[in-house]
Amino acid sequence: MRLLLTGLPIPSHLRPVLVPLARAAREAGHEAAIATGAAMAGEIERLGVPVVVLPDVLAPGELGRRPELVDPALVRQLGKWRPEVSGPLDVPLFHPTMTAEFAANVVGAGWRPDVIVRETNAFGALVAAEVLGVPSAVVDIAPLVPPLVPGLAGQLDLLRQGFGLAPSGAAADRLTAGLLPEPWYPAGLRTPGHGYYRVPEPPVTASADGPVVFAAFGSNVRSLLAPDSRLLAITVAALGLLGVPAVVALGSDDAVASWTGPRPGNVELAGFPPQRALLAASDVFVTHAGFSSVRESLSAGVPMVAVPLFADQPANAARVQELGAGVRLDAAGLTAEALAAAVERVLGDPACRTAARGFRDGIAALPPITDFPRLLEA
């Protein structure tokens, strides 16, 4: 079987799931490669997976090369965004031109697959599979994104027509690999071809003197914040008010070295520490509610205080609260006192711990995503 896995050139979209899935397929004797933008090619190849470079598929940091693709309103916000003042950043979850170029690049790559497996956001790969006449499957790294795209079915049909295909009125992935147990998915997102898998990761050992609270807002947020944003300072101050051992990820070692904000004695400032290891030792996770972070927190059985900042994060945060695994807190108007109160509430609520640990047990019982190639072959 020739298996082409596709995704946007963003580390969190490729490294946690598509890379181990491609490696598992190759170890099982299949021919597998990952198709993505050049920005991630070197890293993926170093991880032992061949890359099909899609020349027009840009990483977020490369969009300055093609300003015509970027919404001017979004450009005006970048570098000025203070989520504690204005709330979540409004970013597009579907871009017709970039999606069409993604599809065209996959079709024209000259790497003819038997099956295409895309990550959720790679909508262009879905249409490329239809153009090539091969089945497609989706690894659901962002399950709440599709309902957030206005008129997604109609936009995909316009894209199909541009490739000479008849409109279908719907997505046409044959299989879906969910990365959390079924209860995470609202009923309308569960399809007949939906399976559920865990992401296999090396075990971590919880440190006996680990933090009670760990706070991290992902790998992208610091580059988007205005220089005078107080989000990270508010977080450090809030955990200082609680007085419990805490770690706050600032995003880089340079950020730690240049930090001029509060430095409470109970809070350790780190650049980009090993998240899974810290979660294994934590009682509460303060997070932006990116899906990978939510998945890792639930895998560790750790309840969350979710402060969503952009994309599908508000929907993820709402789902965390709906399922009882934590609370959602609005970024706009955020204060150290409000954040400290939310963390204290989750720390003192056994129901949040029970819900998070229920997901942990459900995740542990799932088959590994590396089993997925057998289903694709069948």
Tags for this entry?
378 residues; alpha/beta; Rossmann fold; seven-stranded parallel β-sheet; hexosyltransferase activity
Report on this model:
- With 378 residues, this protein is an alpha/beta fold.
- Helices cover 38% and strands 14% of the residues.
- The strands form 2 sheets. A 7-stranded parallel β-sheet has the order 3-2-1-4-5-6-7, with helices on both faces. The chain has a 6-stranded parallel β-sheet with strand order 10-9-8-11-12-13, sandwiched between helices.
- β11 (284-287), α13 (291-299) and β12 form a beta-alpha-beta unit.
- α10 (231-242) crosses α15 (336-347).
- It is globular, with a radius of gyration of 21 Å.
Short note summarizing the structure:
The protein is α/β, with parallel strands linked by helices and 378 residues long. It is 38% helix and 14% strand. Strand 2 (31-36), helix 3 (41-46) and strand 3 (51-53) form a beta-alpha-beta unit.
Topology of helices and strands:
Elements: E1 2-6, H1 11-14, H2 18-27, E2 31-36, H3 41-46, E3 51-53, H4 72-77, H5 83-86, H6 96-107, E4 115-119, H7 123-132, E5 136-140, H8 152-162, E6 175-178, E7 194-196, E8 213-216, H9 221-224, H10 231-242, E9 246-249, H11 253-257, E10 267-270, H12 275-280, E11 284-287, H13 291-299, E12 304-306, H14 313-322, E13 326-328, H15 336-347, H16 350-364, H17 372-377
Parallel strand pairs: 1-2, 1-4, 2-3, 4-5, 5-6, 6-7, 8-9, 8-11, 9-10, 11-12, 12-13
Helix pairs in contact: 6-7, 10-15
